[in-house]
């Protein structure tokens, strides 16, 4: 492993560079703009949820004591819909028809579902809603099918914690609490630049030796998925001057982080190394597969501002794995996101795998849950660093430690489950 940096050591370098950006500023955003943003503080609900007692069922609001000897017939003295306003108190020995979500009248302490009733007395043949009486077929205990005020959340309690990336279900809880805006952390501003002359935009007509750019698309999407924002995106052929131009454009866009892909290996046309060697960027070999060639450092602009830059390898799987192992965790830490629950969970290998000693292998696998409830991992067929289709079929990375050269079926490995919320 001579000349190779351990994975954990390189991860520490990446974290330290981003930590230099300091704590993220905060800003207030309206709910319509809050999706995907990260809460900067606990979100306190000014309202109890629900704010009033309401019915869990369509049926009849009753006093439980009045139906204790059911079946029993009660006069229907009104109807309560799920609408604004307060219903009249319920007198003993009577009932009112009530709809799901409607406010339970004062005096009522149970709901009889409509399926446990039948019309009774004069007018019954006309159909339940017009019947002056209803027959309750079975007794109900106090509190049955009544949602008490605050049973979901007490007024003043936290509806959301800090460090949470907001999904639609979180915004539903915020809206139900009566809030119209949230305090969130400012998004990290990222530039993504993919290099190598054979890359063309997806959808472009391919010339001899050309391939669609998967790296730029994948990295930009990965940046957005973690809650940052892409402020500059470019593809650069093997031209040092053009690359420098795009890096200047990234700084002009006020990027706080630059991610490049490609041009970091040992080839004659590795434009990133050619352009950035001696510019504060170190190029190293990390003891991992895929993703051995890496670059990192602080890029200094004309105004003296220093911006972290991570130079990832050009093979699409290598680039993706490098982002997941190094950049994503560092970005989450910077944005003060809560720790991910998904990282490094144990799973049983269904088939054996071989690995090279002296480097940590990140293989691709499909992980699922067995009938016994444990995780099992099936490695995908193609483990090469160019197998994009096989990468798309995988939903996890399994980790083979540096000292291991072979794992047999039935052994337990650590897996990092992809595309799953923390």
Structural commentary:
The protein has 422 residues and is α/β, with parallel strands linked by helices. It is 18% helix and 31% strand. A seven-stranded mixed β-sheet has the order 1-19-21-22-18-14-17, with helices on both faces. A hairpin with a 5-residue loop joins strand 21 (293-300) and strand 22 (306-312). Helix 1 crosses helix 6. The protein is elongated, with a radius of gyration of 31 Å. 38% of the residues are buried. Residues 123-129 have low confidence and may be disordered.
Précis, in short:
This protein has 7 helices and 29 strands. Helix 3 packs parallel to helix 6.
Indicate the structural class: alpha/beta
Query: How many individual β-strands?
Result: 29
Rounded to the nearest angstrom, the radius of gyration is 31 Å
- Quick one: overall form? elongated
Number of helices: 7
Major sheet description: 7 strands, mixed
Distance between the termini: 34 Å
Pick out the low-confidence regions: 123-129
Averaged pLDDT, please?
Answer: 87
- In spatial order, strands of the major sheet run 1-19-21-22-18-14-17
Topology:
Layout (H helix, E strand, L loop, with lengths): L3 E2 L1 H13 L6 E5 L12 E2 L9 E2 L3 E4 L9 E9 L14 E4 L11 E4 L3 E4 L12 E4 L9 E2 L10 E3 L7 H9 L4 E5 L3 E7 L3 E2 L10 E2 L2 H11 L3 E8 L3 H13 L4 E5 L9 H6 L4 E6 L1 E2 L3 E8 L5 E7 L3 H19 L10 E5 L3 E2 L5 E10 L5 E5 L8 H6 L2 E5 L5 E2 L4 E6 L5
Parallel strand pairs: 1-19, 6-7, 14-17, 14-18, 15-16, 18-22, 20-25, 23-26
Antiparallel strand pairs: 2-13, 3-12, 4-11, 5-7, 5-8, 6-10, 9-10, 19-21, 21-22, 23-29, 24-28, 25-26, 25-27, 27-29
């Amino acid at each position: 492993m001579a000349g190779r940096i351990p994975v954990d050591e390189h991860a520490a370098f990446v974290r330290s560079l981003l930590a230099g950006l300091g704590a993220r500023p905060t800003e207030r955003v309206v709910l319509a703009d809050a999706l995907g943003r990260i809460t900067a503080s606990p979100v306190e609900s000014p309202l109890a949820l629900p704010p009033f007692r309401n019915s869990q069922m369509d049926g009849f609001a009753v006093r439980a004591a009045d139906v204790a000897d059911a079946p029993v017939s009660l006069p229907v003295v009104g109807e309560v819909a799920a609408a604004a306003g307060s219903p009249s108190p319920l007198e003993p020995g009577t009932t009112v028809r009530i709809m799901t979500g409607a406010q339970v009248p004062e005096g009522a302490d149970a709901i009889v579902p409509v399926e446990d009733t039948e019309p009774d007395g004069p007018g019954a043949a006309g159909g339940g809603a017009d019947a002056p009486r209803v027959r309750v077929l079975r007794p109900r205990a106090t509190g049955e099918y009544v949602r008490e005020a605050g049973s979901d959340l007490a007024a003043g309690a936290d509806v959301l914690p800090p460090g949470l990336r907001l999904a639609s279900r979180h915004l539903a809880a915020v809206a139900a609490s009566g809030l119209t805006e949230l305090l969130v952390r400012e998004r990290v501003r990222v530039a993504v630049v993919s290099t190598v002359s054979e890359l063309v935009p997806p959808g472009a007509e391919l010339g001899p030796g050309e391939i669609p750019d998967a790296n730029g698309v994948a990295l930009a999407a990965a940046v957005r998925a973690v809650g940052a924002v892409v402020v500059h995106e470019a593809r650069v052929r093997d031209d040092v001057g053009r690359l420098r131009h795009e890096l200047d454009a990234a700084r002009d866009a006020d990027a706080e982080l630059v991610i490049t892909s490609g041009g970091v290996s040992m080839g004659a046309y590795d434009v990133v190394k050619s352009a950035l060697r001696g510019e504060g960027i170190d190029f190293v070999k990390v003891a991992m597969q895929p993703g051995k060639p890496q670059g990192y450092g602080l890029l200094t602009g004309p105004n003296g501002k220093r911006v972290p830059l991570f130079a990832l390898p050009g093979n699409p799987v290598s680039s993706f794995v490098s982002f997941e192992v190094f950049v994503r965790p560092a970005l989450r830490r910077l944005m003060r996101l809560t720790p991910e629950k998904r990282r490094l969970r144990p799973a049983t290998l269904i088939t054996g795998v071989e690995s090279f000693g002296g480097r940590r292998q990140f293989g691709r696998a499909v992980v699922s849950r067995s009938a016994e409830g444990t995780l099992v991992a099936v490695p995908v067929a193609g483990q090469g660093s160019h197998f994009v289709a096989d990468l798309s079929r995988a939903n996890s990375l399994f980790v083979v430690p540096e000292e291991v050269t072979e794992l047999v079926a039935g052994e337990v490995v650590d897996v990092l489950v992809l595309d799953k919320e923390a």
